[in-house]
Amino acid sequence: METGDRGGEQDGPTVDAKQPRSLADALSRRRALLGMGAVAGIAAADAGGFAYAGGWLRPGALTPSRFTDRFERVYGRHDGFRRNHAKGLGAVGTFASTGAAAAICRAAVFREGSVPLIGRFSLSGGLPDQADASATVRGLGLLFQGPDGQQWRTAMINIPVFPDSTPQGFYERLLASAPVPETGRPDPQKMAAFLARHPETVAAMKVIKQGALGAGFADSAFYGLNAFRFTNRAGATVPVRWAVIPQEAANPRAAPAGKDYLFDDLVRTLAQGPLSWRLVLTVGEPGDPTHDATKPWPRSRRTIEAGTITVTAVQTEAPGNARDVNYDPLVLPDGITASDDPLLAARSAVYARSFTRRAEEPKTPSAVDVSRVLG
């Protein structure tokens, strides 16, 4: 679960002005904004209240604050940074739609043509200065600025399924994976006990291990994981998952060198020219699970080549760029709605709580500096 921040106003990735406090105000304002098709970011409503109303939180059991607290206890507190996927680089680019996806979705972003993107490459975990490692899950967040002013935001990772099917399962795995002070590694007995209680995670890990994760950012595929519902102009609705697939295999790399070698390689590669990925939509059929991100859909499902995502440059995180964007999966344009996957409301809620905290904290310079690499 990528936990980050809350997002900008409709005209760009700036920090939202105010977050409503009460559940009633939150739901009222969210409904109003959804009706206008002007959902700009998580600050448009209190996502914690929204998630509670959706049913994933139980009184006394799990809250956005408890979830965020757990990230801080596992990784430590790092002021001004996301509680997960803390290490990252901003990016800019475009999405060129083929127009093919308009058959299943009326969102303006799928009309033939191009729209600007604001993106963020990241590593999972709450350490903003962690050493890069190819085995660490990599993330790509994208904000599509539609031609009608509506935004579509998505936070993807480079594994084809998610290890957990529920927010509670994710929280329990976070507890089990906390390093023991004596060894700096998770307690194997706690992890074994967790896996014994969660066979869905065991099955998901098998699927993940079978896939090719890519050596770096440039040659990685990134997956949206959760299912959504797409509705076209005729009112027909279908379940959809998506992935972005690299256009070309990356050039062979030298042996890893330096603590930031994955990000450094990305910076150098983009200095030589843009990088592109294909946005591929997979259309589900009756019986395909939309509520469980641990289960893959059959490979035989229909796919649509929706367009090309091109990243033209990366940026050291700073005010006004991806640092201040929330890649909340519930910021959706007209034509895309959430499925019954409980992780979606949970992600939205925890993102909001994480941002609320870091927005009030002093900002520390990013550990990944583009100018250091390019000289």
UniProtKB/TrEMBL annotation:
Species of the source: Mycobacterium europaeum
A molecular-function term among this protein's GO annotations: catalase activity
Binding site for heme: Y351
Domain (Catalase core): residue spans on this chain: 37-372
EC class: oxidoreductase
Name of this protein: Catalase-related peroxidase
Role noted for this protein: Has an organic peroxide-dependent peroxidase activity.
Keyword Plastid part of the UniProt annotation: no
